[in-house]
Structure formats: structure tokens, C-alpha cells
Amino acid sequence: MQRQRLALTTMNSSSPIRLLHKKERTWVTRDATTGEISDLLSIRIVGVTGQCTPSACREEKEAFGIGNQELKDAESEAHWHRLLLDMDGNSFSGRFYRLLRTNSVVLKQTVFQEWHDDRLVPWVHFVPISTSFEELPEVTRFLAKTDEGRSIAHRIASESKEWARQALREIDLQLVWFRLLLEYGRLENGHDV
């Protein structure tokens, strides 16, 4: 329900959020609404998985205006956005590595531990977002609307793309698969292959 909660919050331009502004030498929070950053957000639900009762699925489709395929961005279109949000669904996200290969900054919200956790550094290769999404409006505003934020965003996008180029090579995936088959063969045969 994380995706639905986020979509409902951002669809309502009067949803309360907290933004930061600089006051002398410090940053202070101020109350705002999602309407102040609505030009930076394009979040919507474009399908229902069917993991709900028929009546609940109908209500969800009505709440999100689902059924209009024009709302769905083509995968290639997403790569033109400066910031891309990746979040878990029923399990870990299958889009994360593809998004790292783009020229965009990946904002990552997850609760799962994955093999890359020790290799990818927050704020170097991606921007972490909590499950509360409390910081999402300010992070989005900072990275998109300030000179310093745009500079940081450019650096993060470059670093993540380079990491993906080096660490997610097809030959490495083939090697892992080969090693997995060797180990499986060893276990099945009871001796070294």
C-alpha cells in the first residue's frame, strides 16, 4: 500500500509537507503543501495487480483513475526525468538496476536487504528515501530547484551510471550463473565437479 499512499498524498495538492529554507547560517523547517512542489512530481498508479477483492479493486481503480493507458509513461520516457523514484512492490524492485543505468538520480525506498547494499553508497550512487516519505518533498525540491542540489544530482547520476556500467556487466551475470550451476552439480553429485 506504499505506492497507493504516496500517490494519494501527491494527488492532493493540499496535503501537508515540510520543506526547509535557509535562515542566516542554519536551515529551518516550514509547513507547506504538495501544491508547492506539484510541478516536480509525476506520481500515479496505472494498474491494479488483482491482489484485492473485486470491490476493493473497483474502488482502487476509481480512486486512481486506472484504466486510462494514456497516463502510463513509456519506459524510455522515464529516462528523460531528472529524478526517478524506485520503491518496493510485493518484493524488491526489479527496476533498480535499469534505473541506475540512466542519466537520472534514483531515489530509492526499500525495506529489503540486497546483495548490492555493501557496494552502493547512499548519496553517492542513489538517494535513500524512508518508508514514511517524510523527506521526499524536500529532497525533490533541493535536487531539482537549487544550484547546489542540481550539481549534487548530476554527480550522483554520473556515479550510479558508472557503477552500473562496471558492476552489472552481462559477462559477470553469466559467470555467476555458471558458478551456480557448478555448485548445484557438486551438491547433486556429492563430490567436486
UniProtKB/TrEMBL annotation:
Residues 77-187 form the Glycosyl transferase CAP10 domain. It comes from the Eukaryota. Pfam families: Glyco_transf_90 (PF05686). InterPro entries: CAP10, O-Glucosyltr/Glycosyltrsf_90. This is Rhinocladiella mackenziei CBS 650.93 unplaced genomic scaffold supercont1.2, whole genome shotgun sequence.
